């Protein structure tokens, strides 16, 4: 087998690559008592007395590196902060490694660094250590940034992927498909007359608001593979199903129009500033209102609930029902 682009785009092909090639060849996957690589969560945990250290790492190969609403610098900080936040932790620090192509301009490099700093300030994290390498021209596409995030949570307060129970409500914190569709429209030069921008933003204010109320069972940021992949992953790991309403899922008009023109399902497209939460039914409305008063949570909706069925079922706008399957891969490559 030769590795293709689809193996890095989320969805079933990426999960297969990780399970077959990576997990099967690594013996030590966790620190005793913590969540490790084998759980394939958004991050790992390391027990530390009355607390748990949360760590998550990611590499960023987005194309183009500057896009409507952000750039690779903002994305690299925000994406890693969000992975730590959806584990139920308070993000604290970022480690950063960059590989730069020979000939990359100092002006663009400085712009990226300033963007990273601004993202750190907004997310209230510090960039504490790093590494920088340069490769020969034409052996690297501009720049790759890898970030590792560190956070902390009280012991027993981690929100993993596998704790959902029948009757829990599902909250989505905002519109879907903004990042992937904005990126593809700009990258491919389709000329859509739209002000659509990526939703890249820290989700920490929303997660903290929900956790303060309590009753949060699981959280996930629906990046590669979109909400279709994230909902199926939560359902599979918890051994349950879901019933969601399409009419409750916010989709911007520009995203809907562009998706139809391109033949793309916006539910399968990456987001970079949204959260899917599984919460106790009795706390759902209170959590929803708390999220809606945050900067990025105004469009939040309760989109469905957890069921005994082993599938994610969606009721369409026409009133029919279909299985919302995990995508083979995100239809928009190199989105993060």
Explain what the structure shows.
The protein has two domains: 31-154, 60s Ribosomal Protein L30, Chain: A (2-Layer Sandwich), CATH 3.30.1330; 169-323, Phosphoribosyl-aminoimidazole Synthetase, Chain A, domain 2 (Alpha-Beta Complex), CATH 3.90.650.10. It is globular and about 55 Å long. The protein has helices at residues 11-22, 72-85, 106-123, 178-188, 204-213, 226-238, 253-262, 284-292, and strands spanning 44-48, 51-60, 66-67, 70-71, 90-101, 126-135, 143-154, 169-172, 216-220, 241-245, 276-279, 301-307, 312-315, 321-323. The chain is α+β, with helices and mostly antiparallel strands and 336 residues long. The strands form three sheets. The protein has a seven-stranded mixed β-sheet. Strands 1-2-7-5-6 form a five-stranded mixed β-sheet, with helices on one face. α2 (72-85) runs parallel beside α3 (106-123) and α5 (204-213) runs antiparallel to α8 (284-292). The longest helix has 18 residues, at 106-123. It contains eight helices and 14 strands.
Index terms:
7-stranded mixed beta sheet; single chain; Phosphoribosyl-aminoimidazole Synthetase, Chain A, domain 2; 60s Ribosomal Protein L30, Chain: A; 2 domains; globular; 336 residues; alpha+beta; 5-stranded mixed beta sheet
């Amino acid at each position: 087998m030769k590795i293709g682009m689809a193996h890095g785009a989320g969805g079933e092909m990426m999960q297969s690559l990780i399970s077959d090639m990576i997990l099967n060849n690594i013996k030590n996957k966790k620190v005793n008592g913590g969540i490790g690589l084998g759980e394939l969560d958004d991050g790992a945990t390391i027990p530390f007395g009355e607390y748990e250290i949360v760590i998550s790492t990611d590499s960023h190969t987005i194309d183009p590196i500057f896009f409507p609403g952000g750039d690779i610098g903002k994305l690299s900080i925000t994406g890693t902060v969000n992975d730590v936040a959806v584990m139920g932790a308070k993000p604290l620090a970022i480690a950063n490694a960059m590989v730069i192509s020979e000939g990359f301009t100092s002006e663009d490099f400085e712009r990226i660094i300033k963007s990273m700093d601004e993202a750190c300030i907004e997310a209230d994290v510090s960039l504490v250590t790093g590494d920088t390498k340069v490769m020969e021209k034409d052996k690297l596409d501009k720049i790759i940034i890898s970030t590792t995030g560190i956070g902390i949570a009280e012991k027993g307060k981690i929100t993993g992927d596998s704790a959902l129970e029948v009757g829990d409500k599902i909250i989505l914190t905002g519109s879907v498909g903004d990042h992937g569709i904005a990126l593809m429209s700009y990258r491919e030069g389709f000329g859509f007359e739209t002000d659509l921008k990526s939703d890249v933003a820290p989700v920490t204010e929303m997660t903290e608001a929900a956790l303060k109320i309590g009753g949060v069972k699981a959280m996930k940021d629906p990046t590669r593979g979109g909400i279709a992949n994230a909902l199926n992953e939560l359902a599979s790991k918890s051994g349950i199903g879901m019933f969601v309403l399409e009419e409750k899922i916010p989709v911007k008009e520009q995203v809907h129009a562009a998706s139809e023109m391109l033949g793309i399902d916006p539910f399968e497209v990456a987001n970079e500033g949204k959260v899917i939460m599984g919460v106790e039914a009795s706390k759902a409305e209170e959590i929803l209102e708390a999220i809606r008063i945050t900067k990025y949570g105004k469009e939040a909706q309760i989109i469905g609930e957890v069921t005994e069925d082993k599938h994610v079922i969606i009721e369409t706008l026409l009133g029919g029902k279909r299985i919302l399957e995990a995508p083979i891969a995100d239809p928009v490559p190199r989105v993060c």
